Amino acid sequence: MTVDIHGFTTPTFAPLRDAFAACFTLGQHGGSVAVVHRGELVAELWGGYSDAAQDQSWRQDTLVNVWSTTKGIAAIAMAMLVDRGLAAYDDPVAKHWPEFAANGKAGITLAQALSHQAGVNGLSVPMDLRGLYDGTPYAEALAAMAPLWPPGSRSVYHSISLGTLIAEPLRRITGESLGSFLAREIAAPLGADIFVGLPESEEPRVADLIEGPKTNDGVLETLASPYPQAWRNPSIRPTEPNTRAWRAAEIPGANGHATAKALALIYGDLVSGASKLLSPQALAQATLPRFEGVDAASQTPSAFAAGFSLLPPNGRAGAFGHSGWGGAFAFADPTEGFGIGYTTNQMLGFDDGIDPRRALLVDTLYRLLDAQK
Is the dihedral of CA 368, 323, 339, 10 positive or negative? Predict the structure, then answer.
């Protein structure tokens, strides 16, 4: 598909435009990419269509559900509480969420929970989408259940529950939801266009997600593993974010709506040397490895800090961030001093775990940075 590419780059990063254009030959329908380097926005590009019928052009302010890329943003929120002395990663989750101590979970720490080691990768009781959207039924069921494996013995990706493991302690500590905290403490100071719990007024600029032929491959692998709970109770379709009910809810592990620029601004801030969000000490704690090994469900390499993935695709050692189902991603590289965000509405599936669009964009970015040395 040939499309017009809109936006800008600084001269140094001009080749990113061709790389982004090439993404449309790899399955991209609509999307955006942005990079903040050493505190400066050096690229913001967008193009394609925000709807399947190709009636609506992707715009600079188009929002899209970024799935688990939201987990990295939730991790930043928790890191801000740690930075302020309101929580510690070694705290039991139950210190801030007393009900969570039920059924043998009293000793599970925030660090274990945020690195997918809590043993509650999903619910062990039936839950429908309404319970997830309301939030309270889902949180109460998570608090009441027994661990599905001995906490700390292995890491199994907590697809949806990780968000609740951050949001519920945060709510008890601050008295506000994660979506409210995000709006006030992260989005507003940085001018970042991002939401968890989308206001109805923003609906006209949200892109619909488009399911690809292999989008569900990873889900099916998890369901066939010994740890299927991550994608049960409730089951979630790739196109569920096209509903108002999904967008309006707060699902802090999966339903952030953002622009690529917003993601780049947030991660770029963290490695700018003058962060508005976190002290250097807090960032070091938040990105300290908490698990390195193999995910017990997918049998693939896994490395997590306190909510951040330490294996961002194509990222180099020290990079941290998170990707999302179907293609969205955001991460920072402290050594190179950049934050990058990518959003798309065309969900792909890929056998080797590397989205070709992401590989192309990140490889190009590193090549340009290496050429400056």
Answer: positive
**Which two tokens mark 357?**
């669009």
The crossing angle, in degrees rounded to 10, of helices 260-270 and 69-83 is 40
Show the tokens assigned to 28. 């991209």
Residue with tokens 């598909």: 1
- Whether residue 259 is predicted with pLDDT greater than 80 in this model: the reply is yes
Chain centroid to CA 16:
23
Residue type, 147: P
Distance from C-alpha of 59 to C-alpha of 44, rounded to nearest angstrom:
11
DSSP letter (8 states) at residue 243: S
Over range 328-345, report the average pLDDT. 97
Tokens 């032929």 map to which residue?
213
Cis peptide bond prior to 312, omega within 30° of 0: no
The pairing of strands 64-65 and 338-344 is unpaired
Which of 257, 248, 253 lies closest to 194 in space, CA to CA? Answer: 257
Beta strands 5-9; 64-65: pairing state: unpaired
> Which helix (H) or strand (E) segment is 365 a member of?
helix 356-371
Position 349 confidence tier, pLDDT thresholds 50, 70, 90: confident
Specify the CATH class of 5-371 in words.
Answer: alpha beta
Residues in Cβ contact with 236 at an 8 Å cutoff, skipping those fewer than 6 apart: 129, 160, 254
Distance of alpha carbon 324 from alpha carbon 286, whole angstroms: 20
- Distance, CA of 168 to CA of 170 (rounded, Å): 5
Q: How far from chain centre, in Å, is Cα 41?
A: 21
pLDDT, tens digit, 9 for 90 and up, residues 174-222: 999 999 999 999 999 999 999 999 999 999 999 999 999 889 988 998 9
d(CA 115, CA 304) in angstroms, rounded, equals 5
* 132-154 pLDDT per residue, tens: 999 999 999 999 999 999 999 99
Query: What is the token pair recorded at 260?
Result: 């690529």
CB neighbourhood size of 334 (10 A) = 17
With bands split at pLDDT 50, 70 and 90, how would you rate the model's confidence at 313? low
The mean predicted confidence, pLDDT, of the chain is: 95
The dihedral built from the CA positions of residue 146, 311, 15 and 190, taken in this order, carries a sign that is positive
Half-sphere exposure at residue 82, Cβ-oriented, CA atoms within 13 angstroms: 24
